[in-house]
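Quick one:
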Amino acid sequence: MKTILITGATSGIGKATAGLLAKQGNRIIICGRRSEILESVQLELSEFTEVFSLKFDVRNLEEVESAVNSLPENWKSIDVLINNAGNAHGLDPLSAGKTDDWDSMIDGNVKGLLYVSKTIILGMKERNSGHIVNISSVAARQTYANGVVYCATKKAVDVISEGMRIELTEFGIKVTNIQPGAVETDFSIVRFKGDSERAATVYAGYEPLKAEDIADSIAYCINAPRHVCISDMTIYPSAQAEPRTIYRK
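Output:
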């Protein structure tokens, strides 16, 4: 049984992962920004295992440190950190991009991941064990028009994951970087600022991945034998050939 902390655990990939890992008997720390949803998810998962919730915004270092430091002693030894929290805002060319959107993506996808990781890594190094799973994207593999900043933030996640592995392997800490392709979650609704009709067109004409597919992949990685580290994993729906190419019927 592992103690697993998951950021962005109230929806999408994060919630699906929390559910699967809870059913496998792990202790789960769910993290998010909305108290009422955290309470709902905690109640749902408590049917299967012990669950603790932390409310904080990954973009705020003080909130991150305060929340993690507030964990009771019997929850402080975190075996697995899943850096899932992130966002995409807007789909505009750089010349028309909104700086608020850029800040949100850079602060959440890059700085937030760094803030949470820094706070958790200290304990992992002391214990000479641990596993960090970072959720990147196939957008890191191929930049596409109108998504330059988002692609850049996910490329940063790839680089950070590689750097973590270089720095942490000697301490017995595994690092896994996962690049999902098109996954049908609230991702596109957020990107298009609530325009559900436009978001639906992203997944029209083919079967996209589900959040549960990525949860299965994460579970496979963290349940691998001690001597095995899945360093990188790219996952496409069968209709997607590369980040920009999806065959629709």
